[in-house]
Amino acid sequence: MNILLYNLFYLLVFPGLLFCILMGVLLSGLDRILVARMQRRVGPPLLQNWYDFLKCMGKETIIPRHARRTVYLFAPVVGFGALITISLFLPVLNGKAAFSGNSDLVVILYLLTLVSVCGMVGASASGSPFAGVGLSREMVAMISYELPFVLVMLSVSLKTVALNPMGAPLTFSLTEIWNYQAAHGPLICHWSLIPAALAMLFVIPCEVGMHPFDVAEAETEICEGMLAEYSGKPLAVYKLTHMVKMYVMCALFYVLFLGGLSTGMAAVDVVIFVLVCALLTFLTMSLPHAVCARFKVEQVFQFYWTWVAALALVSLVLVFFGL
User: Where do the structural domains in the chain lie, given as residue ranges?
Assistant: First the structure.
């Protein structure tokens, strides 16, 4: 019974559903406030995105005449479920996670891809030409950041060098990565992985779909792109997925490059984790949003396959040679 309650707590409270939603709402609200302050505006209340979510939940769901109803309605739910599942693999407190194995990073990579694919499938099912353009743009953006993202994961995995039972000189276990950092210090302090950390900081806003990399939902160009035909509860789920994704990507950076940090007091560790996520939100999402114009689709692809991929590749080469 105790094990069952413990697992339910992990799944529904921390670090699962409730904590993800709370952090997503707070970080997205903080982002809007920071951007407003940098642009000399008053900005909305901290919980404005939560109010918008509740408002959408109370609105009528209008299904386009030519939409594929089942896919149109279930795509956002599947994407949100995949995102919540990712949080259960993240050992954000004392190196413990609800789910843990030898291939955590591989599973997370697939689940993040599934979240994007669900968005594209839902857009395709709506039958809207605006959604079709947004779908193609999202596909280009996903191809753009996947390469440097994979290179970052390989760099971190190679650095930890914890031999798995099959004898491969890599570890894709986040628990092993956390334990390595607990013994040898955060990976961001290892100079060979600083380029990979910078590359990861650039990957976060494009993975989340934040300005200036929000090419798939450019309101002034394609009427919110993939979400053009969504309304009511499905739109609310998509908005909530976007908020939670902000938290998940910040938490993933924390585990990969700042793991192993612990004061021995769980409450203090959680506060430190929340503050780090807030700082990452400012650096990776709010600051670029306030100072940069939106990238063109080809600019996003060129930027990630040249500069960002080069940073991650430098770390991979340095780590490969034991530096």
Answer: 2-320
